């Protein structure tokens, strides 16, 4: 039996995942010492990001060849917006982020890059490449959540975030996204497969950059 796209992609980018798993932001999140300003930076940027992620998933749904996958990715786009709203209603209140803090905070350089990457792939690339570009956000968050849960200091000020991404409900969504990507890859021509792997790797790199950006409280160097 030939290797699936997801298995090959995960193996090829494992060093990136290891870099994410062990980076200062994630380590501090797990042991409960992450400074609040860094988590606030992360949550505000994640809220901006999720809207663009939802747009990319909606574009994947529009390009899906099967009705079941139209439903799957339309629902995933809907759920991303629901999560973004929940950040405002829960995490923003819990961590003292006022509505104007969000509206007056522009996308960070990395978030801006990442959302433009996703939306560009969604518009310009075929369905399999769009799935490959969006998959790391699902998969890396799930694996980071599970890894953090295994070593987290509890109680932890970030328990709710950890439990969300380590939870079985989210992992069900991730498994479905992996399966859909593998089905698309199985029908793809060699050039499309190359583009899928390139998109997947770049998204993994952007995931690392997103976490690192929050740790550094990164902003635009010139105004």
Explain what you see.
- By secondary structure, the chain is mainly α.
- It has one domain: Heme oxygenase-like (Heme Oxygenase, Chain A), CATH 1.20.910.
- It has eleven helices and no strands.
- The radius of gyration is 17 Å and the shape is globular.
- The termini are far apart.
Sum this structure up briefly:
The protein is mainly α and 223 residues long. It has helices at 5-12, 14-21, 24-31, 36-63, 67-94, 99-103, 109-124, 127-151, 159-166, 168-186, 190-216.
Question: What brief labels describe this structure?
Answer:
223 residues, mainly alpha, Heme Oxygenase, Chain A, 11 helices
CATH architecture tag: Up-down Bundle
Average pLDDT rating:
94
CA-CA gap between termini: 54 Å
Summed up, the helix count is: 11
The oligomeric state of the chains shown is single chain
Please give the largest β-sheet.
none
Q: Please write the string of helix (H) and strand (E) elements.
A: HHHHHHHHHHH
In percent, how much strand structure appears in the residues? Answer: under 5%
Question: Cα-atom Rg, whole angstroms?
Answer: 17 Å
CATH superfamily annotation:
Heme oxygenase-like
Helix content estimate: over 70%
CATH fold group: Heme Oxygenase, Chain A
When the domains are counted, the total is 1
Instruction: Return residue spans where pLDDT drops below 50 for at least 5 consecutive residues.
Output: none
CATH secondary-structure class: Mainly Alpha
| Structural class by secondary-structure content | mainly alpha
So what's the overall shape? globular
The counted number of beta strands is 0
